[in-house]
Amino acid sequence: MALDGIVISNIVSELKETILDGRINKIQQPEKDEIILVIKNNKNTYKLLLSAQASLPLIYLTDESKTNPMTAPNFCMLLRKHINNGKIVDIIQPNFERIIEFHITHHNELGDLCTKRLIIEIMGRHSNIIFCDKDTVLDSIKHISQNVSSVREVLPGREYFYPPNQNKTNPLDIVSLENFKEILNKENMPVLKAIFTSLTGISPQVATELCFRACVDDTKASSSLTNDEITSLYSAFIEVFSIINSNTYKPIIYYNNEIPEDFSSIPLKSLGSFETTEFDSVSELLQNFYSTKSVVTRIKQKSSDIRKVIQNALERSYKKYDLQLKQLKDTEKRDKFKIYGEIILANAYGISEGQKELEAFNYYTNENIIIPLDETLTPPQNAKKYYDRYNKLKRTYDALQDQLEETKKEFTHLESINNALDIADKEDDLLYIRKELVDYGYIKKKHKDKKTNNIPSKPIHYISSDGFHIYVGKNNFQNDELSLKFANGDDWWFHTKDIPGSHVIVKSKGEDLPDKTFEEAAAAAAYYSKAKNSTKVAVDYTQKKHLKKPNGSKPGFVIYHTNYSMYVDPSIKGLTEVND
């Protein structure tokens, strides 16, 4: 999610309230495309992070510390020379663009008061941090030569000017309905695109929000909008920008199945079905959103090779299973050949030499049937031919029953590993998943593989609304540990019925569990399963004393013959997570 003009305006507003008129106490450059300014103002100390990382450009106040290189990079040294102990006298957002400009005063070597500009441009792979003396570039964290951009060079000594705005209009300059209508009708295109390509700082998400509030189809051509639709859009536009003009931002993160999906500095009614968390500070929102996102992204990147191994193995297993089912279907005619052989022998006396077929009474169905014969064979030989085909298909049928069972166990095991991968939230979790894949031959063992024995592997720990401790296994090794060693005989065990998922244990403390705790534990078992995105999932539950693990069975596999079942919606609502 890129920062749009509205979020940038929220950041500028927050920075004006916190660091405006503050003095820069320290300047650090922990990464090649990132700087941190330590600012003191009104007896408070703030850390301002500015990142021009191509995939994740950011600016926000942070409380995190980062390790700095032993020798400061040249850009950092230049900033220290000019603006260390400088005073931030202004913070602006030019033309509602994704740009924040700091005006910083300092005294030069002669003691004269000078003003410098520190500019961060948050524009995806074109993001940059630029240091200027008036309109002259002193240096930038990324040097942009003419070979890289023929439109605008960003090099020491060059003139600085803002990136071209592609003839967009500053939305803060729109003062009337006619003005708004004129902008929408500049080009004939879907109204959604017309909004975000005509106005600076407006993202597709905000354009979608305007159409949603106005009840206008965002795919409709802008030139075909009725006056009422344009008026509704303008009203929605005024409603949104009144939040900006009145400085009443509401930083919100939107969650999809507990995963941060989106954020905004204004309420997005178009995402009304999402769960939300409001923040007092846009910096707090950005730090929360991107730290959570970075964990998810990092785990996703580090697990990509494991996921590929699992998917390839699953595809092979599914194909094998389908082929075996097809072969099994072909064996369904085996009994027919046995009957043919019996009827041929029963009617052998009436079969003439060279006869090509036999019409006889089938005493199994009480109907006449026609049996093909090989005219070169005698009746006993024809009967033996059909018996041989029967016996061959019967052997195939018997063998396929075992093969199908083994193949089903194989892909069920792989699906359980895949489910563990979906809920992994720490790099250590991946080590246990990789170990299981190595143990079962899906990944070749390497001598340098990190041993998992000394790595703490802790299940997810919740407390139910009634105060009972609930534990969720994050991988098959944890599932075995929880269900077979950690749980006591009277503790309760939950698992989705015939669906790969985590083992869930509720510590009963020797008491009867309330109905609410049963429901919450079952809902958690559904949530941490392959059926997470389904509704009304069947969950089996029983006491630990009824569980058994067959000899030689794979990790996470148990059997039980005494159990109850209930249908629940996957959820962890009502549960309080405990960080052990």
UniProtKB/TrEMBL annotation:
Among Gene3D superfamilies, the record links this protein to: 1.10.8.50, fibrinogen binding protein from staphylococcus aureus domain like (3.40.970.40), ibrinogen binding protein from staphylococcus aureus domain (2.30.310.10)
| Any Pfam family matching the protein | NFACT_N
Q: Which InterPro entries match?
A: NFACT_RNA-bd (IPR008532), Ribosomal_uS13-like_H2TH (IPR010979), RQC_Subunit_NEMF (IPR051608), RqcH_bacterial (IPR043682)
- Indicate yes or no for the key word Transmembrane: no
Which domain of life, per UniProt?
Bacteria
Report if keyword Coiled coil is assigned: yes
Biological process according to GO:
rescue of stalled ribosome
Coiled-coil parts of chain? 383-417
Identify the residues that the record assigns to the NFACT RNA-binding domain, covering every copy: 458-552
Q: Where are the transmembrane segments?
A: none
Q: Name one GO cellular component term.
A: RQC complex
SUPFAM superfamilies membership? S13-like H2TH domain (SSF46946)
What family name appears in the similarity comment? Answer: Belongs to the NEMF family.
* Its job: Key component of the ribosome quality control system (RQC), a ribosome-associated complex that mediates the extraction of incompletely synthesized nascent chains from stalled ribosomes and their subsequent degradation. RqcH recruits Ala-charged tRNA, and with RqcP directs the elongation of stalled nascent chains on 50S ribosomal subunits, leading to non-templated C-terminal alanine extensions (Ala tail). The Ala tail promotes nascent chain degradation. May add between 1 and at least 8 Ala residues. Binds to stalled 50S ribosomal subunits.
**Complexes and interactors:** Associates with stalled 50S ribosomal subunits. Binds to RqcP.
Q: What is this protein called?
A: Rqc2 homolog RqcH
Species for this entry: Natranaerovirga pectinivora
